Amino acid sequence: MGSEKQGFIWLSGLLFLNIFVLSTADVHYYEFSLQESPFTKLCSTKIILTLNGSFPGPEIRVRRGDTVFVNVHNQGNHAVSLKWEGVKGSIDGSNELIQPGRNFTYKIELKDEIGTLRWHATSAWAAATVHGAFVILPVATEDYPFPAPTSDQTIILGEWFREELTEANQTITPGSADAYTINGHPGETYGCSNDTTFEMQVDYEGLYLVGVINAVANETMVFDIENHRLTIVGQNGTYTNRSFTNSLTLAPGQVIDVLLLPNQNVGHYYITARSSSGTHITNGILRYTTTTTSF
Ligand SMILES: *[C@@H]1O[C@H](CO)[C@@H](O)[C@H](O)[C@H]1NC(C)=O
Ligand SMILES: *[C@@H]1O[C@H](CO)[C@@H](O)[C@H](O)[C@H]1NC(C)=O
Ligand SMILES: *[C@@H]1O[C@H](CO)[C@@H](O)[C@H](O)[C@H]1NC(C)=O
Ligand SMILES: *[C@@H]1O[C@H](CO)[C@@H](O)[C@H](O)[C@H]1NC(C)=O
Ligand SMILES: *[C@@H]1O[C@H](CO)[C@@H](O)[C@H](O)[C@H]1NC(C)=O
Ligand SMILES: *[C@@H]1O[C@H](CO)[C@@H](O)[C@H](O)[C@H]1NC(C)=O
Ligand SMILES: *[C@@H]1O[C@H](CO)[C@@H](O)[C@H](O)[C@H]1NC(C)=O
C-alpha cells in the first residue's frame, strides 16, 4: 500500500515535471519580407537587398529550447536562401532557394543553444546586407551563469560598398569594402557629414550583456570600447568560462558575448571597430546617461 502510494506520488511528480518542461518551450512565428530598398551612406544612394527594409536586418529574440517558424516572402529580384549559423538541430529546408515572388517557412528547433547567434543570406553578395542577430535568452526560470545583466544590446559589425553587389560577386575579397559599419552606421570617419553614428546609452554601473557579431565577409575585426574592459561570457551560441580583455578579435562570422560594466567617469567613450588588415576604422559612441549617485 505504502509503496503504491509512493509510486503514485512519484508518477504525478513526473507528470508535473513534463508539463512544466513543455510549458516553458514557446513557439514563435516571424514574417519577413526580402525586398530591394534604397539606402544612402557615404553620401551616395544605392539599392540593396534587405529583410524588411532594414540594414542590418531584424533581430530574432527567443528563449532556450524554443521553436521558431520564419516565413520569408521574397519580394526582391534574386533567388535567396537564409542560413541560421550555429543552430545545432535540424532545420527544415535549410538549402532551399526562395525564388522571387515565392515564400518559404524555415522551422528552427532550438536545443541548448544560448546567447547570440547570427542569420544571413547564403551567398556572399546578399549576405553583405541580409544578416541579423538571433538572440537566445535563458528560460524564465533559469539563471545566467554570470551576474545577471540589467539590459542587453546587439552590436553588428558590417561593411558598406559604394557600388552595387550582384550575383557576379560570388566572393568578397578582404579590404574591398569602402567602409565598416556598426549596426548600419558608418560613423564620422568617412568624411560624409550626413552619415550617422551608432550610439549606445548606458547607466553608470548598470551591467550590459553585449553580443558582438562580425558580419564582415572574409575579414577579422578588432573591437574595443575606450577605457572599458570587457568580460567574455559566451561565444557562437554557448556560454564560456569568463575571461577579461581590452579588445575583441572576431574571425569572419564569429559572435562573442561580453559583459560591459560602465564604471568610468561619466561621459562618452569611443567604440571602435577596424579590420585587422587595417584598411578602415569606424567609430560609435558609448554614452553615460546618468550621473553617479554619491552621498
Ligand atoms: C516584416 O514585414 C512583414 C511584412 O510586411 C510584417 O508582417 C512583419 O511584422 C515585419 N517584421 C518585423 C520584425 O518588422
Ligand atoms: C545631406 O542630407 C540633406 C538632407 O537630407 C540633403 O539635402 C543633402 O543633399 C545631403 N547631402 C549629401 C552630400 O548627400
Ligand atoms: C507562404 O505564406 C503563406 C501565408 O503567409 C503560408 O500560409 C504558407 O504556408 C507559406 N508557404 C511556405 C512554403 O512557407
Ligand atoms: C563585384 O563584381 C564586379 C563585377 O565583377 C566588380 O567590378 C566589383 O569590384 C565587385 N565588387 C566587390 C566588392 O567585390
Ligand atoms: C576571401 O578572399 C579570398 C581572396 O583573398 C577569396 O579567394 C575567397 O573566395 C574569399 N571568400 C569569401 C567567402 O568571399
Ligand atoms: C571552465 O573552467 C573549469 C574549471 O577551471 C574547467 O574544468 C572547464 O573545462 C572550463 N570550461 C571551458 C569550456 O573552458
Ligand atoms: C566561432 O565561429 C567562427 C565563425 O564560424 C569561427 O571562426 C570560430 O572559430 C568559432 N569559435 C568557436 C570557439 O567555436
UniProtKB/TrEMBL annotation:
SUPFAM superfamilies tied to this protein:
Cupredoxins
One GO molecular function term? copper ion binding
> Which keywords appear in this protein's UniProt record, sorted alphabetically?
Signal
| Pfam families, per database record | Cu-oxidase, Cu-oxidase_3
Question: Signal sequence span per UniProt?
Answer: 1-25
Cited InterPro entries: Cu-oxidase-like_N, Cu-oxidase_2nd, Cu-oxidase_fam, Cupredoxin
Record PANTHER family: LACCASE-12-LIKE, MULTI-COPPER OXIDASE
Q: Which family does it belong to?
A: Belongs to the multicopper oxidase family.
What protein does this entry describe?
A: Plastocyanin-like domain-containing protein
Origin species: Gossypium raimondii
Question: Lineage from the top down?
Answer: Eukaryota, Viridiplantae, Streptophyta, Embryophyta, Tracheophyta
